[in-house]
Amino acid sequence: MDTLFAYSNQLVSETDVTFKRYMYDRINWENRLVGLIGPRGVGKTTLVLQHIKNNLDIHHTLYVTAEDFYFAKNRLTDLADTFVKFGGKHLFIDEIHKYPDWSKELKLIYDYHRGLKVVFTGSSVLDIKKGSSDLSRRAVVYTMQGLSFREYLMLFHQIDVPKFSLEEILNHQMNVSVRHPLPFFRTYLERGYYPFSMEYDFDLRLQQVVNQTLESDIPTYADMNVSTGRKLKQLLAIVAESVPFKPNMSKIAEMLTISRNNIADYLLYMEEAGMVAQLREKTGGIRGLGKVNKVYLDNANLVYGLAKEKQNIGNIRETFFLNQLRVGHEVSSSSLADFKIEGIDFEVGGKNKGREQIRNAEKAFVVKDDIESGFLNTIPLWHFGLMY
């Protein structure tokens, strides 16, 4: 226990609190059991350490990772019991999915220690969602994604830009003091979505995130063999090089020599794990029931990292738009344009994009890349990166 406390206090003391992710102020830390999930590398660990440093007494707080060797011989329930006896009030458990039967033990901790608040994080989103069924009515689970363009400007360039709502953006009610934003935006699309891109070997680390997700997280959850894990990587490569990808199950099955019945499951697994995003028809708010019309990589950094010389700029633009808008809005496919949000059609393209496709739309906007400012129903693409 002493070693765990020493490690916890060291991490907290070394944590930088000058920049906080958008989710920091959205979490209700007063709940007794809080879950924070999201793809690998988006900053979940840093966020919880910042909360500890800014708000909690370290003498009554413990941060542990489920990967610690301590758990090779000790159970979570035993740790919680000992921690409470020593006056512990706040327990943070990182990478919870690395611990077998984690959801059942969290349930016991919740029921036995009513004065203890527990926060857990997990990168294997599939496993977390599966285990969360055991914690229904107990855990409040939040999902966090990577940096917005706005957050990137602050973290990488110390440029402070306020958040804007979709309504403010569409009505041109914005006052942004960023001179020549397009070079910043281009770099963000290539390598600004993950906080770890500030460090060395970004390309290598991004590849490790992809490999860990496809070779470990998903196969472990879905009980796949190694060869099936390789099929996931092949399927992801197909999506990466598409413009964008419109799923033809029979054709994909032939290319990958797998059953077409498995492809929809594979894509869903990759979506839940933060590797792809599926654009569906409007479903009345019940996510997942609509027909999938297009499949994108989850974010633009993945396109640059995986498609290499086969990148398609149109695909990158649409990937960014979907990625940023989905945080606060339900985005569906449109019969007239690329996307529909709250009854409004959006057509995404370059600076020469015309209005032909949305001519008959009741309310629509053209979203253009490579322009600094908008007018009438033309909105710069980078503006949609300032929403969280």
UniProtKB/TrEMBL annotation:
<keyword id="KW-0067">ATP-binding</keyword>
<dbReference type="InterPro" id="IPR027417">
    <property type="entry name" value="P-loop_NTPase"/>
</dbReference>
<dbReference type="GO" id="GO:0005524">
    <property type="term" value="F:ATP binding"/>
</dbReference>
<feature type="domain" description="AAA+ ATPase">
    <location>
        <begin position="30"/>
        <end position="165"/>
    </location>
</feature>
<protein>
    <submittedName>
        <fullName>ATP-binding protein</fullName>
    </submittedName>
</protein>
<dbReference type="Pfam" id="PF13173">
    <property type="entry name" value="AAA_14"/>
</dbReference>
<dbReference type="InterPro" id="IPR041682">
    <property type="entry name" value="AAA_14"/>
</dbReference>
<dbReference type="InterPro" id="IPR003593">
    <property type="entry name" value="AAA+_ATPase"/>
</dbReference>
<keyword id="KW-0547">Nucleotide-binding</keyword>
